[in-house]
Amino acid sequence: MIQPFKKLSTSSFIIAFCLHSLTSPAQKNPEKDNLQYVDLRIGNVGQLLEPTRPTVQLPNQMMRMFPVRQDYLDDQITSFPAIIVSHRLGQAFALRPSVQPVGAASWKHKMAYDHDLEVLRPHYYSTYLIDDEVKVEFVPGKKAGIYRFEFPKNGHKSILFDQYNNGEGSWKFNGGQEIVAREIYHDDIPVYLYGTFSKAGKTGSVSGENVVPGEEAKGKRAKAYITFPDNASSIEFRYAISFVSAEQAKKNFENEVKNTGFEDLKKAGEQVWAKTVGQIRVEGGTEAQKRSFYSSLYRTYERMVDITEGNQYYSGYDKKVHTTNRPFYVDDWTWDTYLAHHPLRVILNPAQEEDMLQSFVNMYEQSGWMPTFPVLFGDHACMNGFHSSVTMLDGYRKGLKNFDVAKAYEGMKKNAEQATMLPWRNGPKCELDDIYHSKGFFPALHPGEKETVKLVDGFEKRQAVAVTLGGSYDDWAVGQLAKDLGKDADFQKFNARATNYKNLWNEEKQMFIPKDSQGKWIAIDPKFDGGMGGRDFYDENNGWTYKWQVQHDVNGLIGLLGGKKKFESSLDQLYREGLGRSKYEFWGKFPDATGLVGQYSMGNEPSFHIPYLYNFTDAPWKTQKRIRFLLDVWFKDNIFGIPGDEDGGGMTAFVVFSSMGFYPITPGLPVYTIGSPVFEKVTIDLLNGKEFKMIANNCSVVNKYIQSAKMNGKTLNTPTFTHEELVNGGTLELEMGPLPNKSWGVVNE
């Protein structure tokens, strides 16, 4: 890792950087520190849509930072944020070092950097602005951070401040060494900053096109600056953020960074991350597989984030400040995270997951609805489905009880009975929901038919098949929790609704096909129809992906397809089916459907469970084959190493599970299905003091097929094991070989 440097000669700098390269994280002793394998650059260039961000933060803490730029290919940084407020929904307080005389145009200056001089670690960031010859470093705390700027010895030395949001903001300097700021995020949420500089400077602001000296700046996109003396080459900016009040921002500052130096905060962050990713220890596998694995594990800690400050927090669900005796978490997209992200956290940190589930309950109490995409400003109406219901059931059935289960069920039931199912909409149900409740499917429009329901989003459309399938799963979750809580009438009602998916199964096309409000089939090509992203009928993917969206009733889906053999054959065809057109034409309509293998889309969340469905057939070995292939092809340890929108841990949790050799194929059932591990041994340190071990004897790139298995020393002939066996400290032992054992794991009914 590059150490802070003064102005070095060219030869000295090259020697220093080469030494850094030789001792970079990938070269350390793998037995010492798994943190060495974490590479924030993996996936920093998106296939077609959003890249990953090199997020520097402590695990699940609100202080997040990454340089604002297009992606890793961009060699200019626009600004450095004081805080990333939400994963992809904005930031607050922009910073820019400047070595030119301050003028109104200074804030438009983009900062060129050299990729090879950038250091990206979970707990530390550093870059060298190649034109300006300024080194920028950052270390995060929980609600605070420290920037350090190394300016050239001679010339101007300023830090420029700006705001990202359009509300009325302010900057105020006190004595040239203290700063207090306020920015309005998302129209109505004040974000407060308090900070100090290591040296005093002269301050000012921008008025129109003029730069004026002074200690205060106010207004929309308010701009301010501080210029330091010529002899001040190293400047440290310590600060803290609050969503509660200006006074709390100062308290956060005093609690975290007032008496803590840059190097101390850096070391503390490194220790936290080493302990966090060290909870899972692996042996065997290639260096590339370890890098993909641990980088994915790091990503799963980007969200949700704890926004409690002391014993209080600001809630965007009722726009009030609340007192609390436990953490309150926001920033979660459950359409993505219910599949693997939340289930992974249930294993690694069940107490934290309980706090997150209680946060969901608090949001329901404050807003009247159980959230779907809970962020700082409230429930961000996004995608479709009420998959927080599945997350609640999954946690409860895996032994999590430290949340208000009764209130959670109340919210789940209210969403299921009274909320609109329309994509990208919150609030009460409409006439389309009434059709779902009475007829058991969400109605679609015929191609070319004009929309008559004003509540329908003009871009997102009705997504009628996706809504029906997702609603069936969510209703199943409500019914199952009702059953566990002894609410038999509710169980009967929602268990029946869990089979609504069957109402859209078209026997002729062997696909889920939309119906109109009268129950008549709508003639479509399920491979390509439905407009942008197939959103008239599906969502971001076509009928081939949604053919498998019945995780809660796989046996029922097998029945629709005519039995195990036809089910297996159809799975095979998924990976072999052509696009029927050029890639550019297909992706022009389905840009989310990346990571393609035939019609299978590794780059989008609805596909995660599909390769594991072979475990329900007479060919579990095909799951082993597919998983290894998908991990190897689409999750490389480079800047292109994420095949779709990663969404803050949603996709990389799939990599973590699959690399360990098992997967929660049906969240809501405390059971894992077995794939093909890439490591010879995986040890998970459980917080109950026990260890879960997965041992794969003779495992290698070639030896990917399971020959036989044992759980706790007893022969295991089914490709499943329970959450109870895991948390009790079980040992799953697999014998691996180069050719499939086609009889292992076959379940005879």
UniProtKB/TrEMBL annotation:
Residues 37-242 form the Glycosyl hydrolase family 92 N-terminal domain. GO terms for cellular component: cytosol. SUPFAM superfamilies: Six-hairpin glycosidases. Residues 248-738 form the Glycosyl hydrolase family domain. GO terms for molecular function: carbohydrate binding; peptide-N4-(N-acetyl-beta-glucosaminyl)asparagine amidase activity. Pfam families: Glyco_hydro_92 (PF07971), Glyco_hydro_92N (PF17678). InterPro entries: 6-hairpin_glycosidase_sf, GH-type_carb-bd, GH92_a_mannosidase_put, GH92_N, Glyco_hydro_92, PNGase. Its cofactor is Ca(2+). GO terms for biological process: carbohydrate metabolic process; glycoprotein catabolic process. Keywords: Calcium. Monomer. This is Alpha-1,2-mannosidase, putative. It comes from Dyadobacter soli.
